[in-house]
Amino acid sequence: MSGPKGARGNRFEGALDPVAAAMNASVGFDHRLLPHDVAGSIAHAEMLASRGLISQEDARAIILGLREVADQLASGALAWDEALEDVHMNVEARLIDEIGDAGRRLHTGRSRNDQVATDLRLYARAAAGRIQHAIDELRRALVVQARAHVDTLMPGYTHLQRAQPVRLAHHLLAYDQMLQRDRGRITDAARRADVSPLGAGALAGTTLAIDRKRVADALGFSAVAANSLDAVGDRDFAIELVSACALAHVHLSRLGEELVLWASSEFGFVRIGEAYCSGSSLMPQKMNPDLAELLRAKVGRVVGAWVTLVTVVKGTPLAYNKDLQETQEPLYDAVETLEASLAVARGMIASLDFDVARMRAAIDAGYLVATELADYLVTKGVPFREAHDHAGKLVRLAVSRNLELAQLPLDDLRAVHPAFDDDVATWLDPVRAVDRRDLPGAPARARVLEELAWVERELGLSD
Ligand code: ARG
Is the pTM of this model over 0.90? Predict the structure, then answer.
């Protein structure tokens, strides 16, 4: 028989039905595995030669041939062939075309099942590395803005109602905390992916005396998978990575939403750089925060990828099933979406131009220092619950007179509680209010500077 038979071999007389072939083929997406597939095959071929399972000469021909085929496929000089089903068969068939018989020895002691499991783990590990880097780049952009806005005060919110004054740097560094945890989760997922399935064969290992440890070492894996059935049937590592991607994207979505709000005329806290806005085809005045909205929205597909993944794996019997091919696209989509979003978020954060005066003005309206009134009375010995009631009464009074708390005459304060004194005016100054919050994790200037210094050191922005 001539011509490419794909993976079906001589057991079959006829070809797959065309619609079945289209559904069965994965090369349309698993071409992403090319560098990993080739690295795995090179490690495998070297190992086969070291064990005398193929000759050194054949191994050399295989390795050179694999590099050649990889270059040609990557550059487009060779086209991917759907009839060959997947990346693995495309590479192997082309290798055989290129070097002849030696190429037919590459698949010794190996199955596409342990091969794809290996490729996907290598992909997950590489993707995790890129995502960690992209997270740190976004963190750097946030930290640069935070450093510039240590002394910018803004309202902190709960329920999206103005609550208490904080520093803009503190707000931005809250995202750094989320991103630090995201990075940690990506690192954890990469650690779990760091196990070599090669040698598990189709499901039950191989009768040939291969050296699994040597292959694992060559590919930089820390360990050899302990159970062959699990090694070919496991996609936890993909689920875990996508789960970490989804949570990271949830954080980008919160950031996107805040930027949309802050860039609105209603808030007017920030201008997003033109490179991250688009116009309206109808209303000439519009500068729309499209990219911030997309950061908010793209989380949908990453969470969707996670749901797809767990749903595909759920209920599959041991060991390998073709279902597992369906874990690939959601993995790629989640990784690629998050990478793109992190890059956009980084650039957008760097482009932000905060309206410091507008943020500061927002503190002066809305009774943000009401808690300060209560705390003031506490320092004069009034029990907090009672102080809270007095402060509430004063807010009501101020609202009825259309005044802010700082504008209420001292006599009115004293009428509510005699402990109020001249010093209450300075006490209500928002800068002082923020700086009294001088505990670990709080927005006092000294604490924010401490946090900033720690993060800058961690990110290599200072020494
Ligand atoms: N493209 C396949 C996948 O992604 C490779 C493994 C095929 N194995 C098999 N027994 N059909 O799962």
Answer: yes
Q: Please tell me the distance from the alpha carbon of residue 120 to that of residue 36, in angstroms, as a whole number.
A: 8
CATH class held by domain 113-361:
mainly alpha
The CA distance from 137 to 375, in Å, is: 40
For a substitution probing ligand 1, which of 86, 120, 329 has the most ligand atoms within 8 Å of its CB? 86
Q: Which residues line ligand 1 (CB under 6 A)?
A: 26, 30, 86, 112-113, 116, 320, 322, 324-325, 328
Q: Quick one: CA torsion of 60, 65, 71, 76, rounded to 10 degrees?
A: -170
Give the DSSP per-residue string, 270-294. Answer: EE--GGG-B--SS-TT--B-HHHHH
Give domain 363-458's CATH number out of 1.25.40.10, 1.10.40.30, 3.30.565.10, 3.40.50.970. 1.10.40.30
Active site residue 159: yes
Contact 55, 49 (CB under 8 A): yes
Spacing of C-alpha 435 from chain mean position: 34
List the domain boundaries for the chain.
16-108, 113-361, 363-458
Per-residue pLDDT of the chain (463 residues; tens, 9 = 90+): 334 456 777 888 888 999 999 999 999 999 999 999 999 999 999 999 999 999 999 999 999 999 999 999 999 999 999 999 999 999 999 999 999 999 999 999 999 999 999 999 999 999 999 999 999 999 999 999 999 999 999 999 999 999 999 999 999 999 999 999 999 999 999 999 999 999 999 999 999 999 999 999 999 999 999 999 999 999 999 999 999 999 999 999 999 999 999 999 999 999 999 999 988 788 878 789 999 999 999 999 999 999 999 999 999 999 999 999 999 999 999 999 999 999 999 999 999 999 999 999 999 988 999 999 999 999 999 999 999 999 999 999 999 999 999 999 999 999 999 999 999 999 999 999 999 999 999 999 999 999 999 999 999 999 8
Q: What would the CATH number be for the domain defined by 16-108?
A: 1.10.275.10
Residue 59 CA, ligand 1 centroid: distance in Å:
24
Pocket test for ligand 1, best of 325, 327, 328, 332 (most atoms within 8 A of CB): 325
Residue with tokens 């086969």, as numbered in its chain: 48
Fold match flag (113-361 vs 363-458): no
